[in-house]
Specification:
Blueprint (H helix, E strand, L loop, with lengths): L3 H33 L10 H22 L1 H6 L5 H6 L5 H29 L5 H26 L5 H18 L11 H8 L2 H14 L4 H30 L2
InterPro entries: ABC2_TM (IPR013525), ABC2_TM_bact-type (IPR047817), ABC_2_transport (IPR000412), Nod_factor_ABC_transporter (IPR051784)
Family: Belongs to the ABC-2 integral membrane protein family.
Membrane topology: Multi-pass membrane protein
Length: about 240
């Protein structure tokens, strides 16, 4: 947090400008073409309203990666701040908790700023935007906690780059963010439905638009919560092994 006080302005600008550009270009520009053809895949939902919650969930995934992958890898190096902290009275669990709290803080603040933009665009109202912050946080933690657990074990930065290029980016493109996953071929549709981003996009979108069903929301929430808790358990073990060397 002491370090973040020096750079928070840049992150706030990115958190506001990025959704503004995406929603203006894709939602307002491309969206007019999509709406003009009355796509049956959107069930009458304007493309801007469809796109914004998907981008919001995908943004939470990206924030989880930015704060939970390379920072953990770098901090665990010999010259990183984890060994220095472990030399004090702090336990590995304390160090993990501090990092996870900061990740949660970043997901919440970035999500809140993104939601403010969606309210300005008329996608959702202020009250529903507050409700949507819960699915956004859960989507972010479902990625952040397993990423933290994995990153503490990584020895080469190329592996982290590989996960971003070959895991996160395909999820970003094919998990229902920009178009309904129902438009994918049968086998890919099944694979997409099993991914955490698809679950997060669906939960976020239906909450933001006020179309959430109880049973479906329970399934999405249970899936994301299971990933979050599993990631925390594995991260505690990983931090203990790494920092007790």
């Amino acid at each position: 947090m002491r370090r973040y006080r020096r750079i928070w302005r840049g992150s706030v600008v990115i958190s506001v400008v990025n959704p503004l550009l995406f929603l203006a270009a894709l939602g307002g520009g491309l969206g007019k073409l999509v709406d003009a053809h009355h796509s049956g895949h959107l069930a009458g939902t304007p493309y801007l309203d469809f796109l914004a919650p998907g981008l919001l969930a995908a943004s939470a995934m990206q924030n989880a990666f930015v704060e939970g992958a390379f920072p953990v890898f770098q901090s665990a190096r010999a010259q990183g701040n984890y060994p220095a902290a472990a030399a004090t009275a702090m336990r590995p669990g304390d160090i993990l908790a501090g990092h996870l709290l900061f990740v949660v803080f970043r997901i919440l603040t970035s999500g809140a700023l993104f939601l403010a933009v969606t309210v300005a665009f008329g996608v959702t109202g202020p009250g529903r935007a507050l409700l949507t912050l819960g699915p956004v946080l859960l989507t972010g933690t479902a990625f952040a906690m397993p990423l933290v657990a994995w990153s503490i074990t990584v020895e080469r930065p190329s592996r982290i780059n590989g996960v971003y290029r070959f895991v996160l980016m395909p999820l970003y493109m094919f998990s229902g963010t920009f178009f309904p996953a129902s438009q994918l071929p049968g086998a890919l549709r099944t694979v997409a439905a099993c991914t955490p981003l698809y679950q997060g996009v669906e939960l976020t979108r239906h909450t933001a638009l006020g179309t959430a069903g109880t049973a479906a929301s329970a399934v999405h929430t249970g899936y994301l919560l299971t990933l979050t808790l599993t990631g925390i358990v594995l991260a505690r073990r990983g931090y203990t092994r790494r920092l007790h060397r």
